[in-house]
């Protein structure tokens, strides 16, 4: 994930400008947190469960759940169900953004570039 000070549009069909102050604050708050950034990095290539993320990021499970809540509420991660043949389905988390651009030039603007998710992820909300 990149944080830049430019509002250049490279993928206009996937970009969303975040205008709501509460949404902007939630996103920036999540991005300033080292543990949240570790979770975002861990979900760069694959979806992971909370326990997998706790192990990968070396976090207590309770902390992992708090970070997952913050990231899903900010619209940076999405929760989906991992279907298992034994019927013990679990939640897994997928990163839904590629970039967050911050432009502090003329006012303040935050632009998010959303990922193009596989068809099975079409139900994941695409707005912040």
Task: Describe the 3D structure.
The chain has one domain (2-9, 19-116): Arc Repressor Mutant, subunit A, CATH 1.10.10.10. It is built from 4 helices and 6 strands. Helix 2 crosses helix 4 (61-73). The protein is α+β, with helices and mostly antiparallel strands and 128 residues long. The chain has a 4-stranded mixed sheet with strand order 1-5-6-2. It has a two-stranded antiparallel sheet with strand order 3-4.
Question: How is the secondary structure organized here?
Answer:
Blueprint: E1 2-4, E2 15-18, H1 21-32, H2 34-42, H3 50-57, H4 61-73, E3 77-82, E4 90-95, E5 97-103, E6 109-114
Parallel strand pairs: 1-5
Antiparallel strand pairs: 2-6, 3-4, 5-6
Helix pairs in contact: 2-4, 3-4
Shape: elongated
Number of helices: 4
* The first-level CATH class name: Mainly Alpha
CATH architecture: Orthogonal Bundle
Largest sheet: 4 strands, mixed
Count of extended strands: 6
Q: Percent helix among the residues?
A: 25-40%
Element pattern in H and E: EEHHHHEEEE
Strand order, largest beta sheet: 1-5-6-2
Short description:
This is ArsR family transcriptional regulator. With 128 residues, the protein is an alpha+beta fold.
Write a concise keyword list for the protein shown above:
33% helix; disordered N terminus; two-stranded antiparallel ribbon; 6 strands; Arc Repressor Mutant, subunit A; alpha+beta; 4-stranded mixed β-sheet; 4 helices
């Amino acid at each position: 994930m990149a944080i830049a000070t430019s509002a250049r549009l490279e993928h206009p069909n996937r970009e969303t400008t975040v205008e709501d102050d509460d949404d902007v604050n939630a996103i920036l708050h999540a991005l300033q947190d080292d543990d949240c950034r570790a979770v975002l990095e861990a979900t760069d290539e694959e979806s992971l469960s909370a326990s997998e993320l706790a192990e990968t990021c070396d976090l207590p499970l309770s902390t992992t759940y708090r970070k997952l809540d913050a990231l899903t509420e900010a619209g940076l991660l999405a929760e989906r169900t991992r279907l298992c043949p034994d019927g013990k389905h679990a939640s897994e988390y997928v990163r839904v953004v590629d970039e967050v651009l911050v432009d502090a030039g003329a006012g303040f603007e935050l632009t998010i570039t959303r990922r193009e998710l596989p068809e099975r992820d079409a139900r994941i909300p695409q707005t912040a």
